[in-house]
Amino acid sequence: MNTPLPLPPCSGATLGLLFRQVRDAMWARMAQELAGLGHDLTFSQYITLKKLADGSVGVGELARAAELNPGAMTRLLDRLEAKGLVHRVADASDRRALNIHLTPSGLLIWQDINQCGQRVRERAMHGMSDDEREQLTRLLTQVRDNLSPSGS
Q1: How far apart are CA 123 and CA 69, in angstroms?
Q2: Do the beta carbons of residue 85 and residue 104 sit within 8 Å?
Q3: d(C-alpha 26, C-alpha 73), whole Å
Q4: At residue 1, does pLDDT exceed 60?
Q5: Which residue among 14, 20, 26, 94 has the highest number of C-beta atoms inside a 10 angstrom radius?
Q6: Nearest-5° angle of CA 117, CA 27, CA 48?
Q7: Is the pLDDT assigned to residue 11 strictly greater than 70?
């Protein structure tokens, strides 16, 4: 009787695919959570609101956080502003620059969608101990940092 060969270690292609599948699965679950509460937001809009929840920032910083070009970020901000979630304020030190703020409605929405995010993260890590969760986060941070332009 033939014994099955052991599986080869995780290849780079498989690891990259796994990362993509995890990201896609997390966002799909998040989209379900948001839709269940009546929030029609894209991933980039979610990231933008998350960044703004930490305080006012400029368009360039928001674009980098959401991995969008500045023109796409401007259009995304137009949509969020039309929904009454953000407002733009001229920078006191540079009148050409704008600072983006959450409106009171935007802050309320953020509090709601942040709870969705917490539920999705909890579901993703279900069955893991606190030590395993910490280790997973630490290892993924290391992988990200290793692959970033400033990594080795």
Answers
A1: 32
A2: no
A3: 23
A4: no
A5: 26
A6: 65
A7: no
Amino acid (1-letter code) at residue 66:
A
End-to-end CA distance of the chain, in Å?
47
Run of H or E including 88: strand 86-90
The residues facing 58 across adjacent strands are: 99
Q: Which two tokens stand for residue 121?
A: 């993260």
Tokens of 102: 């959450």
Taking only the tens place, the pLDDT of each residue in 99-118 is 999 999 999 999 999 999 99
Backbone φ and ψ for 6, nearest 5 degrees, come out as -65, 150
Sign of the dihedral defined by the CA atoms of residues 100, 24, 13, 10, in that order = positive
Predicted TM-score (pTM) of the model is: 0.76
Beta bridge partners of 98: 90
